[in-house]
Design goal:
10 strands, six-stranded mixed beta sheet, globular, Thymidylate Synthase, Chain A, single chain
Length: 280
């Protein structure tokens, strides 16, 4: 069985010895291109245990996206602030981030991709077209930051549902643990109240990087012993995402509330602080 914790640590260890590369922020990185991580969901929920990962941040951002929201308001109401610096850097004054993830998932030129995914899983589970895409070249200039994770695909085989996402840029120490958690929640949510069980969670990563000011923190993580720590479980109550049909004026999906998600038996090692790099 594959455990994403082990693969994540191996990726970070390899990055510590990777070539140095300039980057947009001006900080500099250790960078590798084209890596894959895979997790067997039967082992447990992949909330990494080598340092504390804040489940609130992952579930808040996912529900924000699923609702089609692009504003800072919902994030701030739930104490999530890591979009703030990119918003400030963009020069926007409207409290919104432009047509980022939620806009594309729920209104891709008038097309609700999430609703189509839910409907497609129900009607034609064996399809190879269960895809959501967030990369809109014509809209990138209006986003405070282009999508880092820009596409996902669901695969159903017998009683198992797998989910793979594709990411152009992975801040391995700070951002990637939350991307892993977010897509794991989504996989479990798509399986909720269906006959399918979560199978494989797969990350296809483009530029994997450690910022040069994260190297000490990464070394500390790599050398921590987590061999005796089991992964937690995710409990979802209620109905999950409900398909209600609909059209442009009625999106047709009922999105669950944050209170319906609870992480159980999460045992972790202490947090490791590192600076969020956004550039100018």
């Amino acid at each position: 069985m594959t455990n994403i914790e082990n693969q994540y640590r191996a990726l970070m260890a390899n990055l510590l010895h990777a070539p140095t590369k300039k980057d947009r922020t001006g900080v500099g990185t250790k960078s590798l291109f084209g890596r894959q991580l895979e997790h067997d969901m039967s082992i447990g929920f992949p909330l990494l245990v080598g340092k504390k990962i804040y489940f609130n941040h992952a579930i808040t951002e996912l529900l924000w996206i699923l609702q089609g929201r692009t504003d800072l308001g919902y994030l701030h109401e739930n104490n999530v602030h890591y979009w703030d610096d990119d918003y400030a850097r963009s020069g926007r004054k409207d409290g919104k981030l432009g047509p980022v993830y939620g806009a594309q998932w729920r209104d891709f030129n008038g097309y609700d991709q999430l609703m189509n995914l839910i409907k497609g899983i129900s009607i034609d589970p064996s399809s190879r077209r269960h895809i959501i895409n967030a990369w809109r070249p014509d809209k990138l200039k209006n986003m405070v930051l282009p999508p880092c994770h820009y596409a996902m695909q669901v695969n159903i085989n017998d009683d198992k549902m797998d989910l793979m996402w594709i990411q152009r840029s992975a801040d391995v120490f700070l951002g990637l643990p939350y991307d892993i958690a977010m897509y794991a929640i989504l996989l479990e949510l798509l399986c909720h109240n269906t006959e399918y069980k979560p199978g494989k969670l797969i990350a296809q990563l483009g530029d994997c990087h450690l910022y040069l000011n994260h190297l000490e923190a990464a070394q500390k993580y790599v050398y921590r012993d987590v061999s005796n720590i089991e992964l937690p479980k995710l409990k979802i109550t209620g109905d999950g995402i409900i398909y209600e049909g609909g059209h442009r004026s009625n999106p047709g999906l009922k999105i669950p509330k944050k209170k319906q998600f609870k992480i159980l038996n999460y045992n972790y090692l202490p947090p490791i602080k590192a600076k969020l790099n956004v550039g100018k």
